[in-house]
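Hey, quick one: can you model this chain's 3D structure?
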Amino acid sequence: MTTPDPKLMDARWIQSVLPHRYPFLLVDRVLDLKPGTSIRALKNVTMNEEFFQGHFPGHPVMPGVLILEALAQAGAILLVHDIPDRDDRLFYFASIERARFRRPVVPGDQLILETEISNLRRAMCKLEARALVDGRVVAEATMTSAMVDR
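Sure thing. Here's the predicted structure for all 150 residues.
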């Protein structure tokens, strides 16, 4: 498959690639995609997010595990967007290494998700990922994903 124009890689296109749906779809738009190499995507963090109700009342902070999940979803888009039988495949976390959280992510932030393939073998892929807000790294990790049949 060819890579669509970035202007067309919106939430509807993302839902055609990923099985995730609200409230767990954590990628709003793909900004840039280099097949087999890297992806740059966007998550608009709004006060309407369900997790802010309890994390933390009066001082809302996006949970770190959800930042990692957003990075993983961006990575999954990179890995499956051009697989012809992607409706028959899923990517699961196999491991997360060296996860670091540098700054809190709060309502109003635009989370830029950058994921790059560092090693790809048949059904396993290692990804280097980082999340940024205003050009500053807020989280980073090395993630391994495993492709499985649905």
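One thing worth noting: Strands lie at 29-34, 38-44, 89-101, 110-121, 124-133, 136-149.
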